[in-house]
Amino acid sequence: ADEHVDGLLVLFVSPIMIDAQAVAEAIRDHAPKDKPVLACLMGRQKGREAIAVLEDAGIPVFRYPEDAARIMRLLVRRRALLDSEPGPVPRFKVQRARAAALLEAAPAGWLTGSAAEAVLGAYGIPFPRGRLVRAPKDAVEAAHEIGFPVVIKAEAPGLLHKSEHRAVATRLQNGDEVFAAARDLVTRLARRMPGMMLHVQEMAGGHREVLLGMTRDPRYGPLFVAGIGGTHVEVLRDVAVRIAPLDAAAPFEMFASLKGSVLLGEFRGDPPADVAAAADALLRLQQLVADFPRIAEVEVNPFILDAPGGRSLAVDARLRLEGEP
Ligand code: ADP
Ligand code: MG
Hints:
The chain is α+β, with helices and mostly antiparallel strands and 325 residues long. It has ten helices and 14 strands. Helix 4 packs antiparallel against helix 5 and helix 6 packs across helix 7. The chain binds adenosine-5'-diphosphate and magnesium ion.
């Protein structure tokens, strides 16, 4: 086949008179072996036999040209990804021994929020000032130490979606508000959640919420995720996924590829969000999961972005371990 042709998309609308099977056989016999060939067969006459001929030859058959074109586009993207030479993988100075000590004794399953935070913190992912207390009056004291405004969250084993249980109270401005919110959490939730603690946290000042994550694919290894974050992620599903290794540019490309990437730029008078802070955190996450293969899944949501030079913070993280300590 012509060297200027990288792939073929054969569209075939079968008029009544033509033998679709013969056409299919012709496509099969002339298809180049080293380039992708996709076929699209519209019309019914002898459709089944024709499809069987092509599929037996390993040529995917589509009913609609839109689908065939979409797959061709994905093939082009895949090739470009496979051909692109990633730059060097950034390495950071981290507290590896500290993370190892935290993970050493931990059983398989989800770490508690503060344990996940400590592990990610050891790798330099920034978290707000925070304290874990049990009683509402201790929450007030913690809030004074941290500085107002603060956030209080319930933390308990297995509590993964705190907002759904109304277990997050934000924008608490003074001791009275902290006490009331803490007491409300305790009265509503403590009985149902044995071992529940109150996590008093500095309130992040930024306005834009992104998410960072990692899951492991049995074939491709670590998959990194970057997206628009917050409590509506499941609805928005605006995420970019990349396989390792991520070079220094990769996280920026991921954020730029989001549908909602404009939300991260200058927006309604707000300065641009510090995407570099999120990029840095994602690359640190890459180093963490490379160092500790037991880490099966991580989600930081949200990472709240301030303006560049400001205080961008991961305010919620979960981390799942697999296997034996
Ligand atoms: P969950 O995801 O388990 O429901 P989060 O800890 O993510 O709970 O809190 C829910 C939302 O509350 C976040 O998406 C964010 O908008 C807000 N929030 C939580 N912690 C803080 C914080 N420290 N500063 C500012 N906003 C916060
Ligand atoms: Mg969250």
